[in-house]
Write a structure and sequence with these properties.
The complex is a heterodimer. By secondary structure, chain A is α/β, with parallel strands linked by helices. Chain A contains 18 helices and seven strands. Chain B is an alpha+beta fold. In chain B, strands 15-12-14-13-17-18-16 form a seven-stranded antiparallel beta sheet, sandwiched between helices. A five-stranded antiparallel beta sheet of chain B has the order 5-6-10-8-9. In chain B, strands 1-2-4-3 form a four-stranded mixed beta sheet. The chains are: A alpha/beta, B alpha+beta. At the A-B interface, helix 3 of A face helix 2 and helix 12 of B. The structure holds flavin-adenine dinucleotide and iron/sulfur cluster (2 copies).
Chain lengths: 414, 464
Amino acid sequence: MIDARLLESLDNATKDCISCGFCESVCPTLPASDYDLSRGARGRVLLGRALYKDLKEKGATEVNVADSFYSCLDCFACVHVCPAGVNAGEVSDIAKEIITATGSPLESQKKNVATMIVNSTMKYGNPLGLRKKAASWSEGLEFDGSSKTLLYTGNMYQLMPFSKSMGAMKAKLGNRAAERIAGYFKSHPQFIKLSGMFQDRTTREEMENSLRNIYALLRKSGADFNYLGEKEPYPGTFLYDLGYMEEFKEYANTVADLFRSEGVRRIITIDPHTHNVLKNNYPGVVKNFDFEIVYYLDLLDNKMFEPGEEDIEYHEPCYFTLREPVYREPEKTLSLAGNVHKPRRSGKNNFCCGGPSELLYPELAHSVSERRREQLEAGRGRRVVTACPICYANLNRDRDVTDIANYLSEHIKG
Amino acid sequence: MDLKDELRSIAGNHVFSAKEEIIPFLSDASYFTGDEPIAVVVPGTAEEVSKIMAVCSRTETPVVVRGGGTSLTGASVLKGNGIVISMNRFDHVLETSVEDKYVVAEPGVRLDELNYHLEQFGHFYPPDPASSRAATVGGSLSTNAGGLRAAMYGTTKNWVLGMEVVMPDGQVLQFGGKTLKRTSGYDLTSLMVGAEGTLGIITKAILKIWPLPETKGRAVAYYKSIESVGEAVSELKRLGITPMIAEFLDRLTMNSITRNKGLKFPQDAEYMLIIDVASTRESVERELSGAADVLKKFGPIEVTTTTDSGEMEVMYEARKGAYASLLTERERSTQRVVIGDIVVPASKLADTLKESIEKMKELGIHSGLVGHVGDGNIHANIYADLEDEDEMERVEKFQREFGAIAIRHQGSVSAEHGIGMEKMDLLIDEFEGKHSLGTLELMKKIKRVFDPGDILNRGKLLRR
Ligand SMILES: Cc1cc2nc3c(=O)[nH]c(=O)nc-3n(C[C@H](O)[C@H](O)[C@H](O)COP(=O)(O)OP(=O)(O)OC[C@H]3O[C@@H](n4cnc5c(N)ncnc54)[C@H](O)[C@@H]3O)c2cc1C
Ligand code: SF4
Ligand code: SF4
């Protein structure tokens, strides 16, 4: 049986659509899938509508809807052009929640890779069970153990080298084989740690370099903070993104309890996804989630940057531009150290890097990022700067992309 | 080999037949739901299209061609059995010649993308239906799309020089060419414009382009009576002032724009008329004040002018988004905004508008009136509850009457949206009104010559 509340949300999210196709024209996954309409925004809303009708009338569906919704990047580009105010990204979120809910009639449509990630996160506090590796960047750095302010990496930078090599592996194996392997990991989560062997070494070095630069930028700005090291849990973003709301709720509460037991009052986040999940999703599932969440760029002493003349092409993170409130600090800070240019598809018309699909649909993610690279490069040849580790890992195909922390670190006075 | 296998042997994995892949192709922007196709093919080359058509011709399989799927008349969904061919992968601009004033584009290129490309050459392609972000070259050619700028530049048909077409039997033919003029036999390019995918499949289009106007100016007038709007537009025309855009909106539409976009309008204005002139920097002010003087003759509540591009852009987007604003004000989600689309000679505008409003009142139709009045095109944006039989009946009746008003004033039942499944009877009305049903018979004969098996977009445009 499907929770009546979920069904009602699906009804509300889809019923206003008039099928004008405007959303399709901005949805990155549509051209990237070679125009399989079920992998485009309008297709998702129409399938959401069909799913709603089936569930309401028959309590089940024979339509295999999972790939349509799971391939959504959740970028929210579509909602900004919809004349009827429909959000295909939100439709995908609700549909994923329906698929993964306990006792769902769509149980068989669950994705093994997703379940594997969920099981491992629940068991180890990290999608790949890699807590130790996630802390290695901080070796030799000093933290203030008594500070109530926490530098919280959320493990996002650290996961990129693995997600990249797993995505590549999955693309090589093909979806079916990957699903079978994931099916095995799903029931034997202890072996997931082996995935630690599959990491893209260069990406790992680059990511650790960014983390150390973020640390240094904050320290130079006079910030004192603690870091949980190997104890630091992943925030559970995947659980939320994959629609595992029951698990997300349970997990978020354990993370919040840990913060409390460590005496944390203020949390410094360093990537848009972790920032968003703590700021916007945790308060909905954790009672009295009253921590102050600040983004690291807000804490930087802007006087330390040297004005730069370099023309740079800035790729904005969807979470900071396509959702409210818009967060402009990355661009503002970058402009202190360079001439910021943006591709046509920026701001409310931003084009995602494809990263959110990397684990489940690596080929689609690759195709989206190829298109984004073309937009960024079109006739320019400027250095591309990103402000999110996922964007960085996905766009940095030819080692020609720079993370904002690294760019800023290059431009410190003196 | 069954049909799907044969299609796969041509287009590889660009053939969809699973239920979830098919569902999105059952809808376009109209209120019709299509029948389920046996398969959807998304070919990538004209050669593939040709092979697919040869198979469909041999197996007598009906075909619907689809571009952006923004049709308002059910033209891009399947009726009966058959397959859908989606042209979305044809999404490249192939060649641009500023010197010879043309661009060669594939049919799946969306109009806004085409114009973004041309902007970099200081040029543009004028047809601009309000759906331009999603509508494609192929679809807009096939519906002879108009839009806001048609007042000055005319509709799509004025901008098509030539095309490559795959015929129902698979032949690949070239119509027209790259020159701005030619007299070389029957003008088959023009025949394809507005053919709604019933004669052949466009796989390439050669389109005329134009330099972007140096500058623009806008005059806005508010009136109490609809006659003033009609008369003002007619007078502009009579005096030889050709605005780039001449749009009018009624109070219902203004109110909804106020609520949705925050724009304010004078309180007692019932109608708003927007006149844009495109000109050189030196003469724009003069032309603008000329237009404003005309607008002032017809008892306006207020007339304003501006050359501020930011201010003009806000209003342009609000007008283009008028349909969206009306949509957000639906009382029930089963309601649609069905669009009536007629055209009359500019001199008949005042009478046409008056009669249309009377008819709306008589039939209890809840509708906003807007229009590209520069070319005599009026849209009725009608709230219609698809699940309310009585209301749908009244809406249908109004559409028929709205068409009849146009016919009476020597206009047409379809200005720019086409016939599709929606207006086949109205099309008959139009030619009956002209005592020229023979024209329709001739169209049917032409259709038979192009498509003897009646496989292309069967059940649309012409009643069998
Ligand atoms: C919100 C909204 C506003 C609109 N405003 C306007 C407006 O201002 N002016 C206006 O004129 N129209 C307007 N329309 C109608 C519609 O957008 C246009 O008719 C548009 O030109 C259709 O383009 P498309 O690519 O979506 O075509 P589709 O809907 O996919 O197809 C339309 C027709 O063209 C045929 N076709 C498509 N591609 C090919 C091809 N390659 N070869 C042969 N036949 C083909 C199809 O079979 C079908 O018959 C509006 C629609 C919406 C939803
Ligand atoms: S833009 Fe909105 S109304 Fe149009 S098809 Fe997409 S969801 Fe539906
Ligand atoms: S959220 Fe992004 S990927 Fe998902 S439907 Fe909208 S535009 Fe497409």
